[in-house]
Amino acid sequence: MNKKLIIIGLGLVALLLLWSGISIYPDWLWFGNLGFAPVFWTMLLSKFGFGFVIWVILIINDLHPRSGIGTRI
Length: 73
What we know:
- By secondary structure, this protein is mainly α.
- The protein has two helices and no strands.
- It has helices at 3-34, 37-63.
- Helix 1 (3-34) runs antiparallel to helix 2 (37-63).
């Protein structure tokens, strides 16, 4: 694999993480100012937790060998 593509890919991932952090920070401040910081953390963890579970299911589904399912000779 080309080193240049890896660097570009890592740069894009870094930009996405930075953008997520920038968009989450004002919400965290707002919820904390109102005294609802636990609600913010529950909401944030439930979103990321659900996304992580779906990601794991998709990865397992992709790695699982499909031996003979749906194939007819």
